[in-house]
Amino acid sequence: MAALIANHALNPAGGGPALEVVALGKSYAGQAVVAGIDFAVPTGTCFGLLGPNGAGKTTTLRCCLGLTIPDSGTIRLAGRAVPADAGAARARVGVVPQFDNLDPDFTAHENLTVYGRYFGIGEAAMRARIPELLDFAGLTGKEHAPIQSLSGGMKRRLTLARALVNDPDIVFLDEPTTGLDPQARHLIWDRLKRLIALGKTLILTTHFMDEAERLCDRLAILDHGRLIAEGAPRELIRRHIEPQVVEVFGEAVANWAQTHEQLGERMEMAGDTAFFYCRDAAPLLAVLAGETALRFVHRAASLEDVFLKLTGRDLRD
Ligand code: ADP
């Protein structure tokens, strides 16, 4: 592992959290988009901010970075007050935005060099640093590649490498794997786990519950600008949902599910699937064994079940 990336865990403000948000509020046109939220991210952990579209995630992250000025509340990032001291805080932070905004006219090497300038890193220092950044991103040999020639996964990894130019202690990632195929996604997860192992603090938003479950020590679910749940992924599953789920599909499943509703603690229809949430699925499985027209999947409850229970199944555009 490259020495420049592997250096240290931050100890901001004498051991305080990497990020602390208290009573954060932001409205647009009289509409509360962030409606008084509190959370803290301990140094060296990965924190996930989940929520349906429009929940207020990006606004929250923008406030934390000093890019949007909140109406109320306090934020401390890397031990600094934001927005008052956002510049100093951001010197310790890397950002992977939702959409890759690499300069298409520059090569990978040039993109990293230009970004380094924002942090006052000179060309010689960047020349020394770039090989290890590209190595970390699995892009060795691509330094002179034009951006257009890189795949979506490569661009994402280059954006991640760019976020590490200033050797940040805290990395914000807004939907880091949206639009990537499974192979590219796994590669990003691997790199993010490496950063966590190095003591970095990661703060990410994602729509992928398996991503949140794999990476996050703790996460918060935001809806309509409010935090509606917070905890470790396993803890949230234990707290909010029955441990077993049986998904039943097939012809006329809706009628069948209604007449067998009592076999689960809860039953929900979504499209042509009946979701039975059960403390003990054995009685339901015994009945299903005799139903040749129905197919089913029996599985452990997941974070996605928690998310759908708390935020509902209605589409948010
Ligand atoms: P999320 O990231 O969870 O999808 P956002 O924070 O982007 O949510 O948006 C939350 C709400 O705030 C949305 O309804 C969005 O339209 C609104 N919003 C965000 N930024 C602005 C802005 N600059 N001006 C007006 N409304 C905004």
Automatic annotation (TrEMBL):
GO molecular function term, any single one? ATP binding
InterPro entries assigned: AAA+_ATPase (IPR003593), ABC_transporter-like_ATP-bd (IPR003439), ABC_transporter-like_CS (IPR017871), ABC_transporter_ATP-binding (IPR050763), P-loop_NTPase (IPR027417)
- Fetch the CDD domains from UniProt: ABC_subfamily_A
Keyword Nucleus in record: no
Instruction: Provide this UniProt record's keywords sorted from A to Z.
Output: ATP-binding, Cell membrane, Membrane, Nodulation, Nucleotide-binding, Translocase, Transport
Q: Where in the cell is it found?
A: Cell membrane
Q: Name one GO cellular component term.
A: plasma membrane
Pfam families found in the cross-reference section: ABC_tran
* Domain of life of the organism encoding this protein: Bacteria
Which segments constitute the ABC transporter domain?
19-249
Family of this protein: Belongs to the ABC transporter superfamily.
Protein name as it appears in the record:
ABC transporter related
Protein source organism: Accumulibacter regalis
